[in-house]
Amino acid sequence: MAPEWQVFDGLVPYEEACERMEARVAGISAGTAAEAIWLLEHPPLYTAGTSARPDDLTDPGRFPVHQTRRGGQFTYHGPGQRVVYTMLDLTHRGRDVRRFVWQLEDWVIRTLDEFNVKGERRVGRVGVWVVRPQLAPSPSGAPREDKIAAIGVRIRRWISFHGLAINVEPDLTHYDGIVPCGIADHGVTSLVDLGLPVSMADLDVALERTFPKVFG
Asked: Measured between alpha carbons, how far is 168 from 201 in angstroms, rounded to an integer?
């Protein structure tokens, strides 16, 4: 059975979303609720994953900081960024966390391909990246790579929650208060920053169209 999809209007407070997600995951685990994909936006905030380093929060007074038990380090959420919470039962999907993260990356890559954007993986850097050869190279001299999607998941009793975030048109200066995902030598980008007038609704259609190609 396909997951239940829900698009939330407005900016959803982070703590409210987490409480609702906890309840939904408990329902899936108990067999009383269906798998779910939630598409939403948050007000500006930073979240700290289980591997977050205090020094990577460079401007602690800028936005609220939420501690979260998802994997990963510091990341930003805010208007113009599509947050995708994936509550899926991995008991029926292989019980392989590493493969699940790979599938989330694949889902993002396929979705970006709908807009002729080539998203790529990088060893040791979870998420999806875009090479930008038209810009000045990185300090190492390698072509610049900017992150367009972050991934951070948590698994409880083989039910997943949290998920991924794709930058559509956020204020990219809001990332200045953290070292995003602990990676200081690469930047962040968005679909609009890449010159593509993509709306949130456009992205949502692409996400739903490409989901079954990855997760069946």
From this structure: 10
C-alpha span between 150 and 129 (Å, rounded): 9
Residues with a known catalytic role: 181
Long-range contacts made by residues 114-120, C-beta under 8 angstroms, separation at least 24? 114/206, 114/209, 114/210, 115/191, 115/196, 115/198, 115/202, 115/206, 117/148, 117/191, 117/194, 117/196, 119/148, 119/149, 120/145
Instruction: Give how far Cα 186 sits from Cα of 44, 64, 65, 176, Å.
Output: 21, 24, 22, 12
For the entire predicted model, the pTM comes to: 0.94
- What residue spans of the chain are helical by DSSP H? 14-30, 97-113, 200-215
- Return the SS3 of 52: coil
Residues 47-87 pLDDT 10s:
998 888 999 999 999 999 999 988 788 999 999 999 999 99
Tokens of 118: 């080539």
CA neighbor of 94 nearest in space, from 102, 84, 106, 85:
102
Strands (E), the chain: 4-11, 36-41, 45-48, 65-67, 74-77, 81-87, 120-122, 125-131, 145-156, 159-167, 187-188
Question: What are residue 31's phi and psi, to 5 degrees?
Answer: 80, 15
Dist CA 64 CA 178 (whole Å): 12
